[in-house]
Amino acid sequence: MKPTLVILAAGMxxxxxxxxxxxxxxxxxxxxxxxxxxxxxxxxxxxVVFIIRKEYAENFKAIxxxxxxGRIQTEYVFQELSFFTEGYSFPKERxxxxxxxxxxLCAKDAVNEPFAVINADDFYGHNxxxxxxxFLNVGCxxxxxxxxxxDLLKTLSEHGTVNRGVCSLDHLGxxxxxxxxINIAKKGNVIVCDDGLEPAELPLNTRVSMNFWCFDPSxxxxxxxxxxxxxxxNGQELKSEFFIPIVADRFIREGGKIEIIPTSSSWFxxxxxxxxxxxxxxxxxxxxxGEYPTSLWS
Length: 298
Description:
Number of helices: 7
CATH class: Alpha Beta
Largest sheet: 11 strands, mixed
Order of helices and strands: EHEHEHEEHEEEEEEHHEEH
C-alpha cells in the first residue's frame, strides 16, 4: 500500500496578504505545492489529500485537477470548526481554526494508510520525500512515528529573524520534544535566539521541525481523544490552538517513539511577500542544476 501525502492548506495566509498557497513561483507558474506533489510522486506516494477551506474548493480543484489527473489520486477535505467537537459548545464568536492537529484529524475518513503531513507553503526538497517514503513503507507503526529534521542553518532567512520548532533529542537520538523558539538569527558565527528562553545560543547542528511529519493511521483515533481533552481545557478561549507538537509530545510521554529522519534537502518557504523573489531564485537554481524540469507537468 503506497503512503499518502496530506497537505495543510487551510491556513488564512494572513501575514502574506493573499492566498499564497496557489501563487505561482516556478517558471511555468508552479506553486510550491506543485513541487511537493511532484517530489511525492517520484518518491512513490499514491495519493494526495488537500486540507482546505470550503470556500476555496472550486479554486483548488480548477488549479490541481488538470495537472494531477492520471498522475496521483487526489482528495479534498475541509477543516470546519464544528468537526470532531462532538457537540461541545464553543464560543459563537470564535473564528480561528483549531490548529494543525485538528486539521489533520479532518482527514480521518480519507486516509487509511501510513501518511506524511506537510505545510502547503513550504518547499521541502526531493531527498526529504524519499527519506519519508522509505520510513512510511518500512518503519511506521502505531508505536513509531517520525519527523523530518532539518539543519537549522539551512532554514534561516536573510530578511530577519525566524521562528522554529527546535527538536530536543533523547539518549537514543529520537525526538524528546519540540520547543517553539522565536526571533532566531545568525550573528557572525553563532545562532542566537532572542526570546528570553535558554539556551540563548543554539548549536550550529541544531535540528528543527518544519512540520513534515510521518504517521501511522492510528494517529487519528489518538488525536481525536486528545482533542476532546483539549476542548474541555481550552475550548472556551477564542484563539487556543491544538497543534501537532501537542499530540507528539503526549505520544512520547506515553511511551511512543518519534524518529528524526535526517535530510540533505534545504528548506525554503514564504512567510512575507519579500520572500517571494528568494523562492523564485531558489527554484530557478534547482532547475538549472537538473533537479526539476522547467515545466513540471507538461
